[in-house]
Amino acid sequence: MGRSPCCSKEGLNRGAWTALEDKILTAYIKAHGEGKWRNLPKRAGLKRCGKSCRLRWLNYLRPDIKRGNISNDEEELIVRLHKLLGNRWSLIAGRLPGRTDNEIKNYWNTTLGKKATAQASPQSKQNSQSFKKRAIEPMTNTQSSKSTLATQVIPTKATRCTKVFLSLQSPPPPILPPKTLSSTAIDDPPQAPLLNHQQDSPNLHGHDDSDFLNFGHWNEFQSSDGGTLIDNDCDKNLSIDSYHSLALSDDLMFKDWALNRCLDDNSTLDLESLAHLLDSEEWPEMRH
DNA sequence: AAAAGCAGCAACCGCCTAGAT
DNA sequence: TATCTAGGCGGTTGCTGCTTT
Q1: Does residue A66 belong to any structural domain of this protein?
Q2: Which domain holds residue A250?
Q3: Region (Disordered) spans which residues (predicted)?
Q4: Residue A164: strand, helix, or coil
Q5: Which residue has the higher pLDDT, A159 or A73?
Q6: Is A92 exposed, middle or buried (0-12, 13-18, 19+ CB in 10 A)?
Q7: Bases on strand C under 7 Å from any protein CB
Q8: What is the pLDDT of residues A162-205, one digit of tens each?
Q9: Which nucleotide's C1' sits nearest to the alpha carbon of A89?
Q10: Same domain, A245 and A168
Q11: pTM for this prediction
């Protein structure tokens, strides 16, 4: 598809998967489990590359996959998460049980992105006509100042970290609602569905369940050297009510942060600067 | 009825990161 | 510490079906 293959794929099938291939892959994974994708095709007798097998399984063959019929609630949630996270499709998908990043990405590119653009500049005929394919550019950091929607995006760097270490010697960064900390904090989330869970989130730092993306329920562990290990297992408990709270205005959300001393009293709610801080490289001490 | 345009979606690609050695 | 490998992610592409002309 326009690019040279990253590895030799001679003799491998490409394109759409057949029912037989699906059956073989499903049977193999049920018998042996996921993982070892590179060896899987050979072992399963499939003429596909491992990446293709993985994608097929994750996006279509998994038993818990929910396809099509994205509900209004889901749609609304996708929009809001996209505002906050940008094109972090896997993270967004992690909050929507049964949905895959690919599906959400496609849904955004074909449906929601258009709506968002139209809302951002409803009077712009030019914009409405720019819905043509490829005209829907994902919101990048550099684009983020160009639309009202995009300005809400907190661009994060795609780094992964399963734990965040906070030294008690220095105060934790002041402005960090846990789920927007950065990719270091929000990557590898426990994939907890945002739409179905209980309501037992303990408060943390004064946040209640209405805090955006469930800022509650951080498991904190005192480490041996006096630091605090914050497990990322922190967003398991957002209730449906708190999901609906996502419908609060962004202003309210960020005011809430400020009220909870997430922001310095004198600071402005400047998402650009927030985003700057969110770059994990800005605080190297936080990276391990 | 046929051709052109458009939209949706599945799949592929390169890049990046974490973990292993 | 450096290198290699596997897995994961987001961007992009091409196919296919539907709609419009």
Answers
A1: no
A2: 163-286
A3: 169-208
A4: strand
A5: A73
A6: buried
A7: 5-15
A8: 333 333 333 333 333 333 333 333 333 444 444 443 333 333 33
A9: C10
A10: yes
A11: 0.57
